[in-house]
Known about the structure:
The chain has three helices and eleven strands. The chain is of the alpha+beta class. The longest helix is centred in the N-terminal third of the chain and has 15 residues.
Amino acid sequence: MEEAKWYVVHTYSGYENKVKANIDNAIENRHLEETILEVRVPMEDVVEVKNGAKKTVQKKMFPGYVLIKMIMNEETWYVVRNTRGVTGFVGPGSKPVPLTDAEMKSLGIRTENISVDFQEGDTIAVVAGVWKDTVGVVQRMDFGKQTATINVELFGRETPVEISFAEVRRL
């Protein structure tokens, strides 16, 4: 089977999260979980100063672009290309060009797999990222995306949150 690679998709500016949601829905509806593995809108923490107060906010690293890890074939190309808000793949003409491992590393996206010592039902602590110092029980694990879904309490109700394997440790 062909190896999944990262591709860059150009979107209308401001539609990045909507495109991600639409592609995620298409993956689920068309059962493409084995060929489209991950859809990402790369974000970075930026410190803003407003009225003399420092505040850390998340901003899109590449406005107008979405990263997709997928196995390129007719069906996946068609699904992504015909998603509302997508203007096309980045590459010469209509031929998408995958990102190299060096380009992925510079974006802070790891290509190696992380082995973990926890499983579904275990309690884990988040040690980095937005949910740092949060504790939760693993509901689901996705080894393709290298993420665990945990329930956290948000505004008095349980909310599922997807966390990278690199950001958690077992309690």
